[in-house]
Amino acid sequence: MKKKISIVIFISVVVLTIRLFCGVYRHDEFPEKHFFIKHRPTWKWRFFSPIGQSDLTIQELTKEEQIEQKYFNEFVRDQGLSR
Questions:
Q1: Rounded to the nearest 5°, which phi and psi values hold at 20?
Q2: How far apart are CA 59 and CA 69, in angstroms?
Q3: Separation between Cα atoms, residue 83 and residue 75, nearest integer Å
Q4: pLDDT tens track for 2-54
Q5: According to the 3-state scheme, what is the secondary structure of the chain?
């Protein structure tokens, strides 16, 4: 019984760690998805750029899109990914 509980706890910790420190981003130019390791833990899993390769500025986006773009910039673009 203790062995089963230990296995469940171990698997739960591994899944939680992967969820917090890994993510998937959609490239802002090409329709490809890439797996990556985050530089800090966050619950967010999928990242995408609402601006993409267009000429829009962040001020022209809705509040939700601005938040998504800030996440994309912090976790993907500022880390040297999606170039």
A1: -80, -35
A2: 11
A3: 13
A4: 899 999 999 999 999 999 999 999 998 888 999 999 999 999 999 999 998 88
A5: CHHHHHHHHHHHHHHHHHHHHEEEEECCCCCCEEEEECCCCCCCCEECCCCCCCCCCHHHCCHHHHHHHHHHHHHHHCCCCCC
**Cα 66 to Cα 12, 16, 35, 73, distances in angstroms:** 33, 27, 22, 10
Q: Give the integer Cα–Cα distance in Å for 58 and 40.
A: 23
What is the C-alpha separation between 25 and 33, in angstroms, rounded? 6
Summarised one tens digit per residue, pLDDT across range 57-79 is 889 999 999 999 999 999 998 88
Q: What are the structure tokens assigned to 3, written together?
A: 């062995």
Model pTM above 0.85: no
